[in-house]
Amino acid sequence: MIKALYTSITGMNATQNALSVTSNNIANAQTVGYKKQKAVFDDLLYNNTIGSKDTNPKSIGNGVKLSDTYTDYSGGSITLTGGKTQAAIEGNGFFMVGDKQGGNTQYTRKGTFGISGDYYLTNSEGQYVLTYPTKAGTEEIDYSAAPRPIQVPMGTAVGGIRTDKATIQGNLPRDQDQITQDLPVYDQEGNTLTMRVDITKVADGQYTYKVSVRNDSKKETNFTDLVNNNSLTFNSLGEITQGGTGTIPFNGGNLTLDLSHLTNYPTEKTLAPKDITGRPATTVKDCMISDGGYVMVRYKDGSMRAAGQLAVAMFPNEGGLMKMGNGNYAATASTGVPTFGGSNQNGAGTVRGGATEGSNVDLSTEFVDLMLYQRGFQGNAKVIKVADDVLNEVVNLIR
Question: Of 2, 230, 262, 355, which one is least surrounded by beta carbons within 10 A?
Fold first, then answer.
C-alpha cells in the first residue's frame, strides 16, 4: 500500500502541472500571437520480474510524470485592425526583435509594433524590430545585408539622394518624327528637376535623342543640355537593337538611362517613366507596414517609399523554441539552423500589414482538458485515501 501512495502522488503532481498548463492557455485566450501548449505524460520506470521459461514478465508501474509541454504553432485568426505599425504572419515564420545593434535576437508572432521616442520601430517591450534595409537611393530590398533595426525619423527633414538610374518604357510610334518625354529626377542637394528626353526620327527604325534638365525647385524655366545625338536603332519588328542604355552626365556623376524596354510599333505613343532612383529633400510625416511586411514612409508631398522589409525567421524544428514571455521565443540547440528572409521566402508565410494574429487557444477544448485533469487529480487523491484506509486496517489487525 505504501507503493500505491507514492504512485498516486506522481499522478497528483502530473495532473497539477497539467492544470497549470491549461490555466495558462485559458488566461492567454485573448493574447495577441499566443500559441497554446499541451501537457504530455509518460509512465515511469517499471519493476519487472521475469518468470520461468515461456511465461510473461510481471511489470508493476511506478506512476506518471509530465514529460513535455508541446507547443501548437498553428495559426490564429488574422484580424485587420488598421493599425499602421501592426503586422501578422499568415502561415509559418517569426518576426525578429533584438537590441539596437541587431544582437540578442528573439523571435515572436506578436506584431504589435510602434515607434519609439528615438523613431525606431520597436515592440511593446522596447526591443528593436529587425528589418532588411533598402539599397541606397532605391526601394530595392537588400537581402544580402543582415537584418537590423530601422529608424523612421518622423517629423524631421531628410536630405535628398541623387538619381543615378531611370527607365523609359513603352512604344515609340513610327508615324511621329518628334517625341518628347519628361521624367522627374533629383540632385544631391535634394532639388527636384525635370529631365527631358527629345527623340527625333532620322529614318525608318533610326532615331537620335537629346537629354536636357531644368531645376524646378529653383524655378528655372530653361533647359540645359546634357547630351546630344545619342542613337537608337530598331529592327523591322519594332525591337530595339542599339542604344538601349545611355550614360548621362548628371550632377557631378553619371545617370544610367535605360531605354531597352522601348518598342517601335506602328501604333500610338505609350511612353512612361519607371524605376527612378533618388528622392528630393523632404519631411517625413508618417510610416506604416504594408502587406509583404514593407515599412513604408510617407513624405510631405504624399509620396510613399519603402524604407525596409520586416525580416522573417524559419526553423527546421520550431518545437525546440523556448518561451521567454511577452510573446517572445529564444532559439535553442534543438531548433536547428534558422533561415531568414522576407514575406513568402524560404517557406515563410505572408506578412499582412495593419493586422494582428489572435491566440490559437480553443476554449472549449481547454475546458474539457481542465475537467479531465481535475478528475485525474481527484482520482489519485481517492487512491491515496483508499490506500490509507487499507493501511489503517492492517495496523488495526493487532489489538
Answer: 2
Separation between Cα atoms, residue 259 and residue 72, nearest integer Å: 53
Range of the domain at 307: 78-159+282-357
H/E segment holding residue 195: strand 192-203
Asked which of 218, 251, 274 is the last residue of a domain, the reply is 274
CB 7 within 8 A of CB 62: yes
What end-to-end distance do the CA atoms of the chain give, in Å? Answer: 20
Specify whether 368 is located in the same domain as 316.
no
Instruction: Please give the tally of structural domains in the chain.
Output: 3
- 123 shares its domain with 263: no
pLDDT given for residue 159 in this prediction = 82
Residue 226: is its pLDDT beyond 90? yes
Question: Within a 13 Å sphere around the CA of 369, how many CA atoms are in the beta-carbon half?
Answer: 23
Q: Which of 120 and 55 is assigned the larger pLDDT? A: 120
Average pLDDT over every residue of 355-365: 94
User: What DSSP state is assigned to residue 26?
Assistant: H
pLDDT of residue 396: 84
